[in-house]
Amino acid sequence: MGAGRKQVPTYATPISGPAQLQALDSKDLKQLDGLNIQGEIKAMYLRGILAGVIRPDGIGGDLIQFAGQTWLVVKVLEGWSQWTKVALERQMP
User: Fold this and answer.
1) How would you class 8 by CB atoms within 10 Å of its CB: exposed for 0-12, middle for 13-18, buried for 19 or more?
2) Beta strands 63-66 and 69-79: pairing type?
3) Which of 5, 12, 14, 69 is the most core-located residue (most Cβ within 10 A)?
4) Is 9 a domain residue?
5) Is 13 part of a structural domain of the chain?
6) What pLDDT is attached to residue 53?
7) pLDDT > 80? residue 90
8) Are strands 19-22 and 41-47 parallel, antiparallel or unpaired?
9) Is residue 31 part of a domain?
10) pTM of the model
11) Cα–Cα nearest to 40, from 14, 74, 11
């Protein structure tokens, strides 16, 4: 928390690696139903472990820079020890 009890975002050191961007399938859309997400949404496979938005804990999702755009991890769809499938929402510049 910063001055005036305003949240000040903090970020971990950026990392880079391979990723694959895809459209959401029907199973993914069912998982996202009710999250009130608007805008451009995609699925991405990445190596490593990522975190999505956890609203009750006040935790924002990881940010991903891809093809000159910034994407927010809104939900982890599948998580394994070597890779993660996440739902991303494109952020406005």
Assistant:
1) exposed
2) antiparallel
3) 69
4) no
5) no
6) 73
7) yes
8) antiparallel
9) yes
10) 0.73
11) 74
Q: How far apart are the first and last CA of the chain?
A: 24
Position 85, amino acid? K
Q: Given the structure tokens 């990445």, which residue do they identify?
A: 46
Collect all residues with Cβ–Cβ distance below 8 Å to 76 and sequence separation of at least 6.
50, 51, 52, 84, 85, 86, 87
Q: Is the Cβ–Cβ distance between 64 and 33 less than 8 Å? A: no
Q: How far apart are alpha carbons 65 and 93 in whole angstroms?
A: 12
How does pLDDT run across 2-54, given as a tens digit for each residue?
788 887 777 777 778 888 888 888 887 877 776 767 778 889 998 887 777 77
* Residue 67 DSSP label: T
User: Domain range spanning residue 39?
Assistant: 18-90
Asked whether the beta carbons of 83 and 45 are under 8 A apart, the reply is yes
How is 7-53 classified by DSSP, letter by letter?
-----PPP----EEEE---HHHHHHHTTS---S-EEEEEEES-----
Give how many domains the chain has, as a whole number: 1
In a domain, 6, yes or no: no
Type of residue at 20:
Q
